[in-house]
Amino acid sequence: MESKSYTTGSRDNANRNLEGSKTLMASHFLRALFRIQQTSTTRSSFAGRRRRIRRAAYASMAYSAGTRRAWSRALLRKLRSRARLRFPRRLSRAARPQRGDTDQAQVLRKLVPGGPGMDYCKLLEETADYIRCLTTQVRLMQTVMDSISS
Amino acid sequence: MSSRRARSRQSTSSSRITDEQINDLVSKLQAVLPEAHIRGAERVSAAKVLQETCNYIRSLHREVDDLSERLTELLATTEASSAQAAIIRSLLM
């Protein structure tokens, strides 16, 4: 990403910190924010706009990981069905027991998208990636907040 | 891939997943938790890692909710709208 055309240092830093899937995440989220801002009227409720922004956050996470991950595939499915995004989820299927699998792992399954369908090893793997993506999204939202309010 | 093997062996009592593989996955998970740099290579029990993982994910979900709220507030102020339009456009380029 070319940063030479920008005049302020803070914008340069924001762009240098983004690369690869993070860039994808940022551009998706920012475009969604822009759309929400443009289409928000005096009639649209605060709660409605907040819901759309929250949904955009999870959507940009899911699109940045694409179909490469089980958690992002599950999240994409949920977003496309326009179901409510709720964590933790109510589990309808019992997971099969496996070595190391505990009640705590069941709790974790409710927190990670696609968790219920994962065996213990897959759950551990997917969770690490999900957390990496979540922290990136949170940092992105904080950066956007700082940019707008400065 | 260990996960593929795990799925096919799930129903048998003699699992082909070794403790070592699970420990490896648990320590990789520990590495993305906060304070991972403080703990370094110190071995924490899998139970503790799972518990902290759940707490951390919950706090991250709350942060997304909180930041969504604050962004909604920010974007609602009319004097911010022209400034933010310029900023968002520049961040996108």
UniProtKB/TrEMBL annotation, chain A:
InterPro entries: IBH1-like, IBH1_N. Keywords: Transcription, Transcription regulation. The keyword Transcription applies. Residues 27-82 form the IBH1-like N-terminal domain. The keyword ATP-binding does not apply. One of its GO terms (biological process) is regulation of DNA-templated transcription. Pfam families: IBH1_N (PF26576). This is IBH1-like N-terminal domain-containing protein. It comes from Ensete ventricosum (Abyssinian banana).
From TrEMBL, chain B:
It comes from the Eukaryota. GO terms for biological process: regulation of DNA-templated transcription; regulation of growth. The keyword Transcription applies. GO terms for molecular function: protein dimerization activity. Residues 6-60 form the BHLH domain. Keywords: Growth regulation, Transcription, Transcription regulation. Belongs to the bHLH protein family. This is BHLH domain-containing protein.
